[in-house]
Design a protein that fits this description.
Layout lengths: L2 H39 L8 H6 L2 E26 L10 E25 L2 H8 L2 E3 L6 E3 L11 H5 L2 E6 L5 E2 L6 E4 L1 H8 L5 H5 L9 H33 L47
Parallel strand pairs: 4-5
Antiparallel strand pairs: 1-2, 2-5, 2-7, 3-7, 5-6
Helix pairs in contact: 1-7
Length: 291
């Protein structure tokens, strides 16, 4: 066999082997992303605020992103991105990659779950068209924690993307300036078919059907959003009830005031009544004799 056919056969074998392994890899990514969403729902006081989950335009979940540092640091992870449809439901997820670097005194390896919440369509359009550099192409800010946390700081109001990370324990806001978020075309083609674009996935036009693990990510995202929406509605109803409730009238005093005395403080003393003298009895008293 000549060298060229041998190389052709070898390349075909490698491509078949890659296709056979890619499916389970992508399913495992989806299962780990579902784990992250489940954890978010289980920590209501230290999770992503309900308002952000309810009003999000897109959500990226990158489970077990690795951060490696030895003077020069790097970050790399693979995750899933879903966007919100016009009717409020979530689309099938596209696979994405998160990469980044840093310079400074650092050493060690850390694995963390990362969640990005898009509040506008501009950042989503950038990533759909190729990639987005966080902090440069789209403003990114460390997200607040707690289901009722406010977002009224200047940095958060101007940011298009909020970011959270959890290395151990609870989620906390994290700055990801300089990190690059891009589409994982190879993973998308492995799951949805050849020549599949992110827009085809989001619009439901992909040729292939995703596995149950990938669909479960979308369903769990729907569940998390519905819980957040319900919590916001209940909170708003409670607030309206408190504001419309009539204020209780001040309680009336139950102690009756003492009647005012009409006697002057220095009233003259009343004269003492003298006993009357004996009166004369006209008819004598008939007394019986003693025995």
């Amino acid at each position: 066999m000549s060298r060229f056919p041998r190389l052709l056969v070898l390349s075909l074998a490698l491509s078949v082997a890659t296709a056979a392994v890619a499916g389970p890899q992508e399913d495992e990514r989806a299962r780990q992303a579902v784990r992250v969403l489940t954890d978010i729902q289980q920590i209501p006081e230290s999770g992503i605020p309900d308002k952000l989950l309810d009003e999000a335009r897109g959500i990226v979940v990158v489970p077990d992103a690795l951060k490696i540092g030895l003077v020069l640091g790097g970050r790399r992870g693979h995750g899933l991105l879903s966007v919100k449809n016009p009717d409020g439901t979530w689309s099938s997820p596209s696979f994405v990659k998160l990469t980044g670097g840093s310079i400074g005194f650092q050493a060690g390896v850390q694995s963390a779950d990362i969640v990005l919440v898009f509040r506008s369509d501009r950042g989503l359009d950038s990533i759909v068209n190729g990639k987005v550099t966080l902090g440069a192409d789209a403003g990114v800010a460390a997200g607040p924690v707690g289901r009722n946390a406010g977002t009224a700081t200047d940095g958060q109001l101007k940011a298009e993307i909020w970011s959270w990370s959890r290395a151990r324990g609870l989620f906390a806001g994290i700055a990801l300036d300089g990190a690059v978020l891009s589409i994982d075309d190879a993973a998308n083609e492995s799951v949805y078919g050849q020549d599949t674009t992110p827009r085809m996935i989001f619009e439901g036009r992909a040729a292939g059907q995703p596995s149950s693990a990938v669909v479960d990510f979308r369903d769990r995202l729907e569940e998390a959003s519905n819980i957040a929406r319900t919590a916001r509605s209940n909170s708003a109803a409670d607030e309206r009830a408190r504001s419309s409730a009539p204020r209780p009238a001040p309680a009336a005093s139950t102690t009756a005031p003492a009647p005012a005395s009409t006697t002057p403080l220095h009233a003259p003393a009343q004269p003492t009544q003298q006993p009357s003298s004996f009166q004369t009895v006209e008819s004598p008293v008939q007394a019986e004799p003693l025995p």
